[in-house]
């Protein structure tokens, strides 16, 4: 730590101060000397300051002796129009290959493992389509209340989590095989998925906001229309996924912390063991569960005979629990993503056309919510979320994947 801290410096230059950026550049040149030097700029600044900072940086602080890469934090705009304006301004100062739009949730091992499971295992490859998959559920459930009021109250869960993390997860899960692991090849396939997502129907969207009881210590005020919960059914209109519902559930202040992807397969046609499964045939549905929290694991639910003289079936889970199998330290999400920036690996960062495609999916919904002042359904802090989400799952014939 001492060795690292000896190589860190602080300089206060102001966020829209050209002179300050010139001072920063001079300080870096002093440290770099005459050797070739690359620079990464992490712009951890409010959205309203981003253009000032990036403009001053582009003109006064880029190295001429190596590459420059710029990390930008979400949200990347407020809707399709503001995002387009922001992107247009950034691309007037930098090349696309210099921009890294970071979302720490995409640095989780679960996300990186999606493509490994799909493309490195023959057992999954032929099953990965509408022919065998009945539905997909992407669940991000937080048991905590909103930690940062001003930021979240301005953007809500749709702009904060759904736009980047959820849609990027679906894109990686549903994309066609890329021609290589090169970041651009992967992003080419992701953007095709995002462009294929059908326009969202208002009836397929559930908004919620937690309500705190008198005894709850919630030190943040939320606007009455700011959603802390979003559930929706997405459909991808292409040959692979036609008719398969992708069900999203993202919420704060829920009963537990849970991050997972559940892939439910079709029932076995003409299953001769139906009478041996029990009253609920859905319990016998094969599932692939990719879990990030509470404990990282890969689970496969299969049907199996219960030991004994009778012939009754059970649906246990084949379990790969990471903490039992792997003793290696799991790096923090930011460690993973920052290393990718250093290596120039861009596949977990949104390209400008991906960004636009994602906003095109959500902007009509956001405008409809604002235009009609749609009030979210209230749910108890520490509860299971709005009851409307259960009706949504039932509408699409999906058994709710709960603990």
TrEMBL record:
Q: Please name the GO terms of the biological process aspect recorded for this protein, alphabetically.
A: glucose metabolic process; pentose-phosphate shunt
- Gene3D superfamilies for the chain: Dihydrodipicolinate Reductase, domain 2 (3.30.360.10), NAD(P)-binding Rossmann-like Domain (3.40.50.720)
Q: Name one Pfam family in it.
A: G6PD_N
Q: Does the keyword Cytoplasm apply?
A: no
Which residue stretches, if any, does this entry annotate as coiled coil?
A: none
Per its record, what are the GO molecular function terms? glucose-6-phosphate dehydrogenase activity; NADP binding
Family, per the entry? Answer: Belongs to the glucose-6-phosphate dehydrogenase family.
The protein's name is Glucose-6-phosphate 1-dehydrogenase 4
Q: Which species is this UniProt entry from?
A: Quercus suber (Cork oak)
